[in-house]
Amino acid sequence: MTNNNMFFIANWKMYGNTGNIIKSTTVIKLANTKKYKNHKIIYCPPYTLLNAFYKKVKNSNISIGAQNCHANSDFGAFTGSINTKLIKSTGAKYIIIGHSENRNNNDETNLIINKKIKSALSENLKVVFCIGEKLSDKKNKNTYNVLKKQLKIGLKGIKNFNNIIFAYEPVWSIGTGIIPKRTELIRNINNVIKIINKLKKSINPKILYGGSVNPKNAKELAQIKEINGFLVGGASLNAKKFIDIIKKTYN
Ligand code: PGA
Prior knowledge:
Layout: E1 7-11, H1 18-23, H2 25-31, E2 40-44, H3 50-57, E3 62-66, H4 84-88, E4 94-97, H5 100-105, H6 110-122, E5 126-131, H7 135-139, H8 143-154, E6 164-168, H9 182-199, E7 207-210, H10 218-222, E8 229-232, H11 239-248
Parallel strand pairs: 1-2, 1-8, 2-3, 3-4, 4-5, 5-6, 6-7, 7-8
Helix pairs in contact: 6-8, 8-9
Bound molecules: 2-phosphoglycolic acid (PGA).
């Protein structure tokens, strides 16, 4: 089953320039057509491009998001950092928090992630909260416990999950070209839903999948009914590939 109401989030990581923004014109056109207008297409470029990108898309169906923030919500002496107030002022509506590249390379703990999520919500940003197990967790059959810990601590003290979208990204799948087997993916996403529901009854969480999504596997992945969209890294920098991924979600 495919649907016309999915999230397509482009995570440009530390790539991109104004030329890539210009090339996104084709995506903007697609997003404004009747057939695709119910999708949520969100570009998350590096901080330096947020405002330029926002100006480009502000009259379209596309939104802009940041890829991270500093955990301190107030202004302060944090050289080289950007907090959620500054992000909000660029026109961004979304923010990715807890991406494994920050968890693993920048010592971002679950507690720091929790602070960042709270800061983003206090600025009315919509959070794309990333979770996912490493290959060693998978090999040690520890995936469930890892996901539970990430969700439990990351969401601690947060009463309202309405502005949080969850992105399940197995770390071993990011940038590797390897995607989980269908049964494994469905099992892990259902576990994520179960854990979230235990933390907060009566919500219907939106779960995205991320990790090596490309025009070749998008159709198969989109047929998994538990998946509400994709967080796309590498393939999102190329407007044609990104469009292909969006189109593949239709039969
Ligand atoms: P990838 O990245 O699509 O290049 O695997 C996904 C991500 O890091 O969000």
